[in-house]
Amino acid sequence: MANSSFSTNHFFTPFEESIDSYAIPARFTFPFDYEPHPLCILATQKLQSYLETQQDLNHNFGLSKVDGAIIGKMFGVLVVETQDGEIGYLSAFSGKLAGENHHTGFVPPIFDGTEDGGFVNIGMLELSRISREIKELEINSQEDVNEVIEVLKSYRKAFSISLQNEIFDQYHFLNKNGEEMSLRKIFEKAAYKNPPAGAGECAAPKLLQYAFGNNMKPLAMAEFWWGLSPKSTQWKHRSFYPACREKCEPILAHMLEGMDLDEKLQ
């Protein structure tokens, strides 16, 4: 990020001003019902200031007249303490930003499936090939190809499930004790049949994963929406939101295990 408020180590951003007047959180944020801690508000103000002025991201948040699909985005900040006792914050976005997983100043994804030549791209190309073959056969609409079409559809379904499971198996989540658990194991433990698509891509798990993997102590977190949302009136520009329950609740139950949490507000 080309902004002086972001540190040169790319991910950890120290507070430039004195934070002596701020109380350090005694317990970590309950992620599904919270009032943002003042340090999270300070970190959010800095991140939003960057988002307002940045020229690095080719992403249409819908806040200016730019052609193309409008894609508002959920961002998150995690206030942390380093091993050296320095307090600052980490930043993350949910899913991809400007079509990419990696941007300076934001923690990396837990798994990057966009790499050229990776099994995800190879698998998606194969699915596209199968779909094209099915479509071509359906256009011909000859009775003698109906059986072939059904076989191809069954193969496509099985291949898609196998690819999705292989993707899920790349996600492993840490907690403060360094205990790692796979995505499928987490959702199996929570009595889900399967993880939902996109599980592990939200801001909160990314932030905690980076903190635990780099010996940082999480102190407080907050998530906010940036931009417009053409799909839902629920998401308001600049507003804070709780972590999503469908994708994040089982994951965060593991990642926050053993941590003292704030009480639920209501």
Structure summary:
34% of the residues lie in helices and 14% in strands.
Query: Uncertain spans, ≥5 residues at pLDDT below 50?
Result: 1-8
Proportion of β residues? 5-15%
Percent of residues in helices comes to 25-40%
Number of helices: 6
List key phrases describing it:
five-stranded antiparallel sheet; 266 residues; disordered N terminus; globular; two-stranded antiparallel ribbon; alpha+beta; 6 helices
Describe the structure.
- It is a single chain.
- The model is unreliable at 1-8 (pLDDT under 50).
- Strands 1-3-2-6-7 form a 5-stranded antiparallel beta sheet, sandwiched between helices. It has a two-stranded antiparallel sheet with strand order 4-5.
- It is built from 6 helices and 7 strands.
- 30% of the residues are buried.
- The protein is globular, with a radius of gyration of 21 Å.
- The chain is 34% helix and 14% strand.
- It is α+β, with helices and mostly antiparallel strands and 266 residues long.
